[in-house]
Structure formats: structure tokens, C-alpha cells
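Hey, I was hoping to borrow your eyes for a little while. I've been staring at a protein lately and its backbone has me curious. You're getting the sequence in one-letter code plus the fold written as C-alpha cells. Would you mind checking whether the C-alpha cells look sensible for this chain? Here's the protein in full, and shout if anything looks odd to you:
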Amino acid sequence: MKYTIDVAYKSLFKYGEELCGDKVAVARTENSTICVLADGLGSGVKANILSTLSSQIIVTMLKEGATMEEAVETIAGTLPVCSVRKVAYSTFSVLQITDEGEAYLVEFDNPFCIYVRDGKLVQLPCVYREYAGKGMYESRFNVLPGDSLTIVSDGVIYAGVGATLNFGWTWDSVAEWLTRTVTRDMSALRLSTLLSQAVSDLYMGKCGDDSTVMAVKVLPRKSVNLLASPPKDKDKDEQMVRDFMKAMGKKVVCGGSSANMVGRVLSRRVSTALTYSDPDIPPIGRIEGIDLVTEGVLTMARTLELLRAAQATQTDTDPFKRLDEDNGAARLARLLLEDCTHLRLFVGTAVNPAHQNPNLPADLTIKFRLIDEIQTELERLGKTVEKAYY
């Protein structure tokens, strides 16, 4: 069985700094996901440059086929050591997980990875090794669906030191918080956001150090099918709906004309909700057997906005306040972000005159552009997106 590796991260800047001294790099190969969190010494520009170089060198080498040993040895051999503090200019953690669930973790002077399974802390088997004279810990293990692996920079475990807490939050406190908070179905994005908010609260909004959370969740396949716009040729209506209904996974229909087509082909009633929370977002509809029915362009535009806001990695705001609202756009965005690893788009090529700009060619209608941009955002999150035109 192949798994999907869900990765998300959030960074809080040291108070007064314009750049973050931590850097996360994520790459996906044909059969694995590679995640690197590097923490540059100090803060500001120098730390940002050092952590960026470290993370990019490691992730690029691994993606191009180098072994973990070669990548780590290259970094270990090239990173300078501070003459005053006698520590490396950048620390890092490297996690690679195959689609079959085989994981390999290397940690160099970063806080140890916090591994939670079914609400309990899992002790990773660590082996101490030296690369280019620098000591590191490596672990090999197998992951299961629902597992979460959280890697943080040291700004997280020292959160609140000298302010709300005498000695900071500590690794044990963060681990305890995660075992109480993480659920099997929680997305990496929600987990990283919640932990980052807790860190910000402990610092009282003024972080004493750059603080980055990289959350990794192991997920089984979760399929979502989204139908948007009827076919250009009305004779293909029935075929499009039949293909859509046969597909495994949750079903979403976007657009009034699409909903009417689905209802007509299936001989099912299309109704509209009488209440909705946001006057700027049209109410959702209902069709028996369909998980979510929304309006078209306005809802999809807001969905795209929510997807982008949720992915902002360096922010002090909570994107889930809007994502958890009860309206069509929030429901769709939440479904795509948290309950979808594979999305199949059923796109009809009929052009709605109300959405057509006379200065643009017919294939650049607003709806088609929105679909393409939503696809881009989801692929950036590592989700698999397929598209079928009718």
C-alpha cells in the first residue's frame, strides 16, 4: 500500500527581524518525500543565508540521486564553525520517507523529532555517527497512516523563556502538547498552524528567536472528485456525469449549471440551503449522493484565496479561522486541504457568457483559470491532481 506524505510548515520571525534564520526545503521524487529544516546560527540576514544554503544543498543532492550519507557529509564538511561559540553555523534535520512508509532521519544539533502515533510518543531508534568529524544521530524506521512527525527549531522549545516561562517550553512540554493535540485525521497544515500559534502565545507575540514548525503526517489515499462546468457538447452530459459518479471518493459539484446537469442526468432534485454565514459567498446546494454542491466562480475564487492564505508559511495570523467558517468556499477549501490526497477534476468546456471577457480567447474564461490555479496550489502541497475535459 502506498501512502501520501503530507508536509506543512510555519515560521515565526525573531522580534524585530525582517528575515527568518530558519529554512525548510521540501522535494518530492518518484517514490519519496524529502524534508529539511535548517537553523542558521543567530538571526537575520546571515542566518537566513546559511540555513537557505544548507537546506537547498541537501534537498537538491538527495533529489538528484545522491545518498543521504553523501548529502550530509557534503554539508558537514563545508559548514564553517563559529570560532567563538565552537558550534556549526547551521544545524539541520533531514527526513526522507518513501511512499511505502520507510523513513530515514538524520539530525544534527536540532531538537529531536517528536514522533506521535495514536496519541502516544514513539521513541525512535537512534544511532550516533560522525560525518566529516561532526556527530549526528540517524534513525531508520517504518511509518503508518495517522502517524505524525514534528521537527522544530530551537526557538520552539525555548518559547516563553524569560517571559511567560522561566526556562522556556522545553522539548518534553512540546512533546506532551503534541500527544494531547494531534489526531489521526489532523492535517500537517492544521498541526503546524496550531503549534506555531501556541509558540507565539508563549512569546506574547514577540518571539525571542526564530521559531519554525515542520509537521509531517502519513496519510492513506483520500480521493476527491470535482465536477465544474458542463460539456461544450450537450450530448456528452450523460457520459460526464456517469464518469463522475463511477469515480471512487468524495463528490463535489461547482456551479449552478453543473448542479442542474447532474440533477437532470441522475433524476435527482437540486435544492439550495436557505441559510448561510457569509453574504459574499452564495449558499450551498444539495443533491442526493453528492458530498458538496456549491456555486461556481465566486465560490471558487474565494476557495483559491483561502488555499493561498493557508499555505503562507511565515505569518502571525490564523488561516483556520476563515477555513472553519460554514460557507461553500470554506467547506471546499477545507475538503481539498484536509481530506484529499488525490483530486480528479471533471471539467466541461462549455463557456458561460457571463464569465467571458471579450478581449480574451475562449479557453481563458474565469472559471478555467480558477481551476488551473487551484490545481497549482494543491500540487504545491504535494497532492496528486488529474484533469479530464469534456
